[in-house]
Amino acid sequence: MSKLKDREIKTAYDIQTKANIFFRPFDQRVESIKKLTKWIKSNEDEIKTSIKLDFKKPDIEIELTEIWICIKEADLIIKNLKKWMKPKKIAKTLTLITTKSYIQKNPKGKILIISPWNYPFQLTIMPLLAAIAAGNSVFLKPSEKTPNVSNLIKKMASEIFSPKDVVVFEGGKDTVNTLLKHDFDHIMYTGGIEVGQLIMQNAAKTLTPVTLELGGKCPVVVDKDVNLDRAAQKIIYYKFMNAGQTCVAPDYILVDSSVCDEFKAYCVKYIKRMYGDSELIKNNPDYCRIVNDEHFERLFNKLEESLNSGDKVIFGGDYDSNKSYFSPTLISSKMSSHIMKEEIFGPILPIIQVEQIEDAIENINSKDAPLAAYIFTNNKSKVNYFIGNIKSGAICINDLTLHLVHSHLPFGGVGKSGIGRYHGKFGFDEFSNEIPILKNINNSPLMLLYPPYTKRVRKIVNLVRKLF
Ligand code: NAD
Hints:
By secondary structure, this protein is of the alpha/beta class.
């Protein structure tokens, strides 16, 4: 880490510390969010170009998952911020009858946001919007694995924000480590589990609260009592969007053995319908590429080891490292397979047969809690059984991933898939300190309880304890 960057971080930190002495009022927060929305709308082409330079995502996927979602979040905040900021009146209690109380949401201060490469724009801008809404100043550290997007985010911040409010530092782990030398008021990290643990260990030194948006193996249960064609269509869409490099993408399928072959055939049908035959997919711009060689190799090794342990390819298994191309790949697998150890985070989908719903739940709960769990069934009691027994950050029934798009649902993991929640009001709350405020009258009757503890005080205490 260069001494210059070290100094730049320290200078920005001091500037924001000074600027945070007074809280940012409503108008200033809304103005910042409007500026950000305007910038996104007028720089859509630059956003698309830089994402494509980092890795080839289809235009439609960029528009929906990187741009539209941020604009929608900004609109929601602008519409609701006044209401969210309004102190919440709290009912009186009998013992404190002369008081008035409310809860106020105050900014936390300086927020450090560390984001990953897979949705490099969205996963930096969504937490930024929430942090601004809550009145904070922000340090952004986008991923070094998507340098063009990181650079564009830095340019954006310099064009529309003062360093008093938002600064961007590019770079990898060295930059993170330098940033972590400073005492932030909250750290939000999105990425893999191991680095999440490092961030939390570091934050513990200064008792800094954290939001950790991590990963995991998101399971899908497919029951026999469901429209298999529709289930396969949805699963294939959400698995192979962004070439499986999505934290809430289905990681593996547990399908009722009586319909397994039929389900596999539907999956193949939808891969071909969405992306074409094996040869066509290779050149299809609607199919995303793998972000870099390191991840390509990771996926290659995963598939090799899975096949060596007895798994069989149902579809795909092709790749071209020169083009960062890894085909949509379906494999017949088992819970003990090598591929079931860690999150796949790429376009390989293991399909595993199960005999009954209880087996599916046992298999899922034998692993760390995922970010999302999915079930396809028309059987209400199976839905209830699933909801009642699965430990997961979220649950979606007869669809996938949509909970992430719903502005009024909290987003986040449990256990190893993360700590904390954001999106919509949940993001505003995450970056706010909830402050209880109480006001009393001058001549409070509670003063009758003060020393000296005379017989009169004793009588009042006895009465209070009897009545309340
Ligand atoms: P990444 O490699 O881009 O790392 C994320 C951030 O951590 C980057 O800014 C990087 O610079 C920093 N970093 C990396 N190594 C570090 C180290 N040793 N010390 C300090 N900082 C370090 O992204 P990734 O980790 O490959 O992201 C993929 C993971 O993120 C997957 O597990 C995925 O499921 C998860 N993810 C979760 C969510 C969510 O919302 N929960 C969203 C996207 C991705």
